[in-house]
Design a protein that fits this description.
Layout (H helix, E strand, L loop, with lengths): L2 H15 L3 H18 L4 H12 L3 E5 L5 H11 L6 E5 L2 H7 L6 E4 L5 H9 L3 E6 L4 H7 L6 E5 L15 H11 L4 E5 L6 E3 L10 E3 L2 H20 L3 E4 L3
Parallel strand pairs: 1-2, 1-6, 2-3, 3-4, 4-5, 6-9
Antiparallel strand pairs: 7-8
Helix pairs in contact: 8-9
Length: 242
Amino acid sequence: MNYDEWENWYERILDDFKFSKHDDEDSAKLLNQILNEEGYITIDDLKCDIVDFKNTDKFIVFGAGPSIKQHVKTIRENYNLEDYILISADGATTALLEMHIVPDIIATDLDGNMDDILAANFRNAYLVVHAHGNNKELIGKYTSFLDNVMGTTQSKPEGCLYNFGGFTDGDRAIFLALQLGAKSIILAGMDFGDVVTKYSRPNNKLDLMDADEIKKKKLKYAEELVNWIEDNVNVELVNLCD
């Protein structure tokens, strides 16, 4: 999805959630500034270091939904993980590490379990850090400590930042896979339901809890964006939740 296509979605999201475009752009400027000072990777670096290295166009994208652990078991029983590029959506990284899997790439807005995201980064997971109006403080707190970072924004991309489309960590991870040349994508832990896990809400002690209204609305957008991909992109998309 190019920015012209994404902009229609973006304006709709701004209006629906009453988000501030100025706040999004402010966070993006900070992320761009830090990455220019500390160093960053490009989409071509990701293709070279991961896609070309693993020599595959098959991806698995892991979300932090209630089905994540069962889906990982299913994948291990039926697929060879070495044949796939693994992208985790933020908090799903914790679930993967608990099952002794380090993703190749993490798509994150830095509100997952940062100890686990840092641990995965230390174990060579590349990070795609996303800027939006509500995470400027987290960008300032963590970005300088990360290695192999590419930046994205939900506003118009400037500087070293990209915008491939997508709203939540999960659907942005899918759009990232497409940008990296995916021809086949398995979706694991992408429930799009009314229940969230401790992986997506690391400050909560319960394993499962009802999603609040904002989260429910975000998941609806994520599902709608995945449906857009199915209708508009030539890719084999298999959601293990179906």
